[in-house]
Amino acid sequence: MCIRDSQRRVRGSRSPAMGNKVLGKYAVEEDNQIGSGGQGFLWRIYPAKSEATGQPVSVFIFDKDQLDDLFKEVSQRKSLSKGDIERAKERVLEAFRKEVTTLSRIRHPNFIKVIEPLDESRKAIVMVTEPVIGSLANAFKDYTNLKSPGAEVACYTPETPEVTNGLRHLGEALKFCHHGGLKTAHISIAPTSISVSYTHLRAHETPEHLVCRLLLEKKKTTSSEMSASLRFFQHQLTITRILPLHFLITCMCRLHYVT
Predict the structure, then answer these.
(1) Are 131 and 35 in contact (CB under 8 A)?
(2) Cα–Cα distance for residue pair 197/150, rounded to 1 Å
């Protein structure tokens, strides 16, 4: 279900989930929604930091009030009873609950890392993850359910090397999903179900520092090879602004379990 109507834009900047218990542990930039994604773009993405450690994270918030707008539009096109609508809403909520629970159990570099377990209140469902800049759909300039994109995703223009590397990430994730520990078939791969992150960068690490670290970790790399590689990478940064992006599967709503 894709929601692209202009009425699905954000109604206000303040999130209804700021009263959720888990968010008491994080300093959330509640007026700075940077992305959207998931089924129907219903997840809203906010940057945040741990109050205890300062670790950057992303907070995914599903505002349950969005379902009222969604099913109001559906009921105008189809004849649905109030009971039908309530049961349909509950099925959507259960799908989002299951998505967070499933992702929380997965340990794979190409699936988004969930830092906090499912947190649900009367108004919202919350998921705290490793930091991302938005969904791949946002990177392709689809800003549904997003009033104003974050600066990083707004400036991002996918280049061929990044897309190639991103497809490799997705291939590895799907191999694990289909043939590895999950034994499931993911049947909803789309730009909305993929998040983009800079997780190869460590705290306070620039892209140039990243190249030096990765080359040094190879052990066999000589200083002259490292210098040449760094000059090439700096040139690429200047010309194309390529950064070490990582594509992560975020949406797990539609899975087919393989027996």
Answers:
(1) no
(2) 13
CA count, 13 A, side-chain hemisphere, 199: 19
Report d(CA 66, CA 70) in Å as an integer: 6
- φ, ψ (nearest 5 deg) of residue 205: -100, 130
pLDDT tens digits, one per residue of 225-252: 555 544 444 433 333 333 446 788 887 6
C-alpha 164/C-alpha 168 separation (Å) is 6
pTM comes to: 0.76
Instruction: Give the model confidence (pLDDT) of 100-132 as tens digits.
Output: 998 998 988 889 999 998 999 999 999 999 999
Which residue carries 């034994």 as its tokens? Answer: 183
Here the tokens at position 242 are: 């390529």
- In b/e form, how buried is each residue of 185-202, taking b as 16+ CB within 10 angstroms? ebeeeeebbbbbbbbebe
pLDDT at residue 228, rounded to an integer: 55
d(C-alpha 49, C-alpha 103), whole Å: 21
Q: Which of 70, 68, 46 is nearest to 57 (CA)?
A: 46
Count how many Cα atoms sit within 13 Å of the Cα of residue 79 in the half-sphere of its side chain. Answer: 0
Task: Give the least confident one: 51-55, 159-163, 190-194.
Answer: 159-163
